[in-house]
Amino acid sequence: MHGVGIASLSYAMDSIVESSTHNNGEPDVETFVRGLKSIKPVCRWSSGTWEFGNGVTREWNEIQNTTKDPQLLTSYLLFELRRRSNN
After folding, report:
1. Phi, psi values for residue 51, rounded to 5°
2. Can you give the pTM of this predicted structure?
3. What is the 3-state secondary structure (H, E, C) of the chain?
4. Which domain holds residue 79?
5. Is there a smaller number of Cβ atoms within 10 Å at the N or the C end of the chain?
6. pLDDT confidence of 67, banded at 50, 70, 90?
7. Cβ proximity of 12 and 77 under 8 Å
8. Per residue in 2-52, pLDDT tens?
9. Tally of domains in the chain
């Protein structure tokens, strides 16, 4: 996983913490597992094509640590995390 992926996942994990209502707002391991598993189907860490919507795609190894890609990946992961947690 590229540094952009690590940074983007840290935002996703922050979102899991913020949405947690267990243990006085402190999520347990299962909360993280459930949240991260929910976005697994759309993640392309080592193969495939990221499909960000609106025709924007990147091959798994084309994500760059430039000005736009980190925001693109982070926004996508947060969107998918929220969307999948509401289902």
Report:
1. -120, 100
2. 0.88
3. CCHHHHHHHHHHHHHHHHHCCCHHHCCCHHHHHHHHHHHHHHCCCCCCEEEEECCEEEECCCCCCCCCHHHHHHHHHHHHHHHHHCC
4. 3-85
5. C
6. confident
7. yes
8. 799 999 999 999 999 888 766 666 778 998 999 999 999 999 999 999 999
9. 1
Token readout for 71 is: 């925001």
- What residues have CB less than 8 Å from 81, skipping those under 6 apart? 12, 15, 16, 35, 38, 39
Q: What is the mean pLDDT of residues 60-82?
A: 94
What local confidence, expressed as pLDDT, does residue 86 receive? 75
- Cβ contacts of 84 within 8 Å, gap of 6 or more: 38, 39
As given in the structure block, the two tokens for residue 40 are: 């697994």
- Looking at this protein, which amino acid is placed at residue 68? K
